[in-house]
Amino acid sequence: MSAKGELRRLRELEWRELDIKEAGSWPWSLQFICCVLLLCLTFAGMHWYLAAPAAEELEQVRAEESRLLRDYRSKAAQAANLEVMRSEMENLESRMRTLQQMLPTGAEIPALIDDISGTAIDNQLAIDFIRLRAPVEREHYVERPFDIQVQGDYHRLAAFLAGVAGLPRIVTLHDMTLAPEGDNGQNLRLSLLARTYSYRQDEEAP
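That's the Pilus assembly protein PilO sequence above. Prediction below.
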């Protein structure tokens, strides 16, 4: 049958009277169109139920691949600098041990105060008092403050401060005040707050 005849049959077809049970008697062009539509719907359904989840999983895998590549590059860079980082860590640990050795333990505080008193006497200063305050607990260390008040001339007081700062144990000086003592104006009274520190691990070990 010619194409013109098929077109005529399609135009003359009563669409409302079509019955799926009689599809075998439909015009072949209509059957062809229905087959094409059925195939399209089948492929669309297969894509929806099969291909779409696979595509989503593929995107997740690609994202995971990107993350793993970033991690790999980061760890590769760290591995390349591993020896340098180890050397720096060893230097830091060595400095930490040196600083810890400069921190007195609680039992060494009296000896430290004796050293400060000796420094004042060596510089010919009069000691009014060296008085301990209550220790202050910090997260990693114990702060041990004490008040110092001495008298002498300006140069001897400066030498005393330099001597305290040069002690083998760490001592920090705070809140320093100078006031004249006597009528000649040469003698001065120095009051200050000093702090030394103990490492918490040393305190907890006994």
